[in-house]
TrEMBL record:
Keywords: Oxidoreductase. GO terms for cellular component: membrane. This is SDR family NAD(P)-dependent oxidoreductase. Pfam families: adh_short (PF00106). Coiled coil: none annotated. Belongs to the short-chain dehydrogenases/reductases (SDR) family. It comes from the Bacteria. The keyword Repeat does not apply. GO terms for molecular function: oxidoreductase activity. The keyword Protein biosynthesis does not apply.
Length: 284
């Protein structure tokens, strides 16, 4: 179902990150190349898989849900594309490490680090649920780090490759009530990833970060208030990923994030008042 066919509201294009890309350049960049995509069974990952496969990439899809992965691979192949899948839950750190080790002889040319765990719950409510912070940290930080650490040496030895981290605008903004585990884990990986990019810049590897506002996906659907908030479609987000794949080492974000990020520390009391008001309205 598209945004036009559903009650979900689409965010105006001028509020989104720039998503234009040259189809010819994308074809030249990914055709015949192995592209590994995490969180690929639905949402942004599935949209990226379809887009990149349509431009000649050989996509290797990772996610937890085998039925959805198999169906997506079948769709891509029926359209003339090349796709394979592996079942992998990044919450299983040993499995993430083992899978990376299995690819060291033939590492991917590109990685789309897209898998994520969203959680909207107060700190107090999470006190009796230690699994909340544990799963967010594993899926949003530990698992992606272990996967990349297993693949980066081989990609570095080859001297080429690109990685796109599909992140969120919240990683660069002050704390948002009810999102402590999600925001902290995503921000931690964002900082690790940007540090890796700085260290590997001279080794032929290009690491790009994509900071997305709300995207209407199955992951965001359980948060009911999002149905009333304008958001990007998964195809919008995939186009942003394609733009970064073509550009390489870059950061892509909506234009309004930069001034908000700079001004937020100076807003002080006003920002904290808004945060408390948001918590009071949204905790129930």
């Amino acid at each position: 179902m598209t945004v036009a066919d559903s009650p979900l509201r689409r965010m105006p294009g001028w509020l989104q990150p720039r998503r234009g890309f040259s189809p010819a350049r994308l074809q030249a960049t990914v055709a015949g190349r192995l592209v590994l995509i995490t969180g690929a069974s639905s949402g942004i990952g599935a949209a990226c898989a379809r887009l990149l496969a349509a431009h000649g990439a050989c996509v290797l899809l990772l996610a937890r849900r085998e039925d959805e992965l198999a169906a997506l691979c079948a769709d891509i192949r029926s359209a003339g594309g090349q796709a394979e899948y592996r079942v992998l839950d990044l919450n299983d750190l040993a499995a993430a490490t083992a899978f990376a080790a299995s690819l060291t002889a033939t590492p991917p040319d590109f990685i789309i680090s897209n898998a994520g765990k969203s959680l909207r719950r107060s700190v107090i409510d999470s006190c009796t649920r230690p699994q909340d912070i544990g799963r967010c940290l594993h899926v949003n930080f530990h698992g992606p780090v272990l996967l990349l650490q297993g693949l980066l040496p081989a990609m570095r030895a080859r001297g080429s490759g690109g990685i796109v981290n599909v992140s969120s605008v919240v990683t660069r903004l002050p704390p948002a009530p009810l999102w402590s585990a999600y925001q902290a884990s995503k921000a931690g990986f964002d900082l690790w990833f940007r540090t890796a990019g700085a260290e590997l810049a001279g080794d032929g590897l290009r690491l790009g970060s994509l900071y997305l506002p709300l995207v209407h996906t199955p992951m965001s659907a359980p948060t009911g208030i999002y149905a009333r908030v304008p958001g990007m479609t998964t195809d919008d987000a995939a186009a942003c990923v394609a733009r970064l794949v073509c550009r390489g080492d870059a950061r892509l974000a909506p234009w309004w994030l930069w001034p908000l990020e700079v001004l937020a520390p100076w807003l002080g009391t006003g920002w904290r008042w808004l945060a408390r008001r948001q918590f009071a309205r949204g905790r129930h």
